[in-house]
Write a structure and sequence with these properties.
The chain has 108 residues and is an alpha+beta fold. The protein contains two helices and five strands. It has one domain. It is globular, with a radius of gyration of 17 Å.
Length: 108
């Protein structure tokens, strides 16, 4: 019975930790281009906006942290930060690589 109680507490702790807000720092990009803007549209900020506008049902604003590209749940706020370094506060859903955005602000 003790083992079951310990497992229940540990599992509950994992679930709680999974939904914790975190801060991610990176550059606002789009899911089409990701880390590299190769569409021939300059500057990068224009490329990000144009790629999302091309097909907003398919291409989304995202955060590139230097290693991973995370799709952002908020698809309005990132437009003003296109190709800029930002801090995104939110919950990362590992399975889908989506960040449920709580706040986006310019990074220093």
């Amino acid at each position: 019975m003790k083992k079951l109680a310990v497992l229940a507490v540990a599992f509950g702790g994992l679930l709680f930790a999974a939904d914790q807000s975190r801060t991610f720092v990176g550059v606002i990009t789009d899911t089409m281009c990701g880390a590299k803007h190769t569409m021939g549209i300059s500057p990068d900020a224009k490329c990000v906006r144009e790629c999302v506008k091309m097909d907003p049902n398919k291409w989304k604003y995202a955060l590139y942290d230097g290693k991973n590209v995370y799709t952002l749940s908020d698809q309005q706020t990132p437009e003003k930060f296109a190709a800029e370094r930002v801090k995104v506060t939110g919950v990362l859903y590992e399975k889908t690589q989506i960040i449920k955005v709580e706040k986006i602000e310019a990074a220093r």
